[in-house]
Amino acid sequence: MDVLDLYRKTGALLEGHFLLRSGKHSPLFLQSAALLQHPLYAEAVGEALARHFEDEPFEFVIGPAIGGVILSFVVARAAGARALFAEKAPDGGMIIRPGLEVNPGDRFLAVEDVVTTGGSLKRAIDAARARGAVPVAAAAIIDRSGGQASFDVPFRSLATLSAPAYEPDGCPLCRAGVELEEV
Ligand SMILES: [Zn+2]
């Protein structure tokens, strides 16, 4: 499966001139929700990711909300595991909602749609570790960190994408007069 093709086909890979949440400008923007809104495509992505970890069993999958919720579900469905999510806590970290089952010693896979710095995926891993679970690996549909994201567990992605991000005053798209879109 060419996952970048799937992003393009579903309008999830946008090309132009975008103001990212970091304040930087980029010619590319990934809107995974546009792909994951199609259950059959989401399922295919979940199966492709789960296949990478067939030899490393885990009891649950966890993803940072909101982007990681659907992905966690489809990977867990394909792997026969539970699907959990972590959400932002007031202290800036992440927590797992009471009622979601995490047992001490449970092995888990942490997933996120797109990894840029890996920060939220790390916080989701920490949230599960805080409940006594043990990560086997981290995974993303797309790694756009340019090889910068690293974890203390193995990390796999279905595709890598190096997209430049410019400071506004050094942005060639601004200089060329391309209209800026907020995303
Ligand atoms: Zn610009």
Notes on the structure:
This protein has 183 residues and is α/β, with parallel strands linked by helices. It has one domain: Rossmann fold. It is 30% helix and 30% strand. A 6-stranded mixed β-sheet has the order 5-4-3-6-7-8, sandwiched between helices. Strands 2-1-9 form a 3-stranded mixed β-sheet. Helix 5 links the parallel strand 6 and strand 7. Helix 3 crosses helix 4. It is globular and about 55 Å long. The protein starts with a helix and ends with a strand. The site of zinc ion has 7 residues, from helix 6.
Largest sheet: 6 strands, mixed
**Tally of strands:** 9
CATH class category label: Alpha Beta
Q: Identify the overall geometry.
A: globular
Any ligands, ions or cofactors bound here, and which? zinc ion
Going by helix content, strand content and strand pairing, the class is: alpha/beta
- The CATH topology, please? Rossmann fold
Query: Architecture, according to CATH?
Result: 3-Layer(aba) Sandwich
Query: CA-to-CA gap between the ends?
Result: 27 Å
Order of neighbouring strands in the sheet with most strands: 5-4-3-6-7-8
What's the helix and strand layout?
Elements: H1 3-9, E1 13-19, E2 25-30, H2 32-36, H3 39-51, E3 60-64, H4 67-79, E4 82-88, E5 94-95, E6 107-115, H5 119-130, E7 134-143, E8 155-160, H6 172-175, E9 181-182
Parallel strand pairs: 1-9, 3-4, 3-6, 6-7, 7-8
Antiparallel strand pairs: 1-2, 4-5
Helix pairs in contact: 3-4
The site of zinc ion (ZN) has 7 residues, from helix 6.
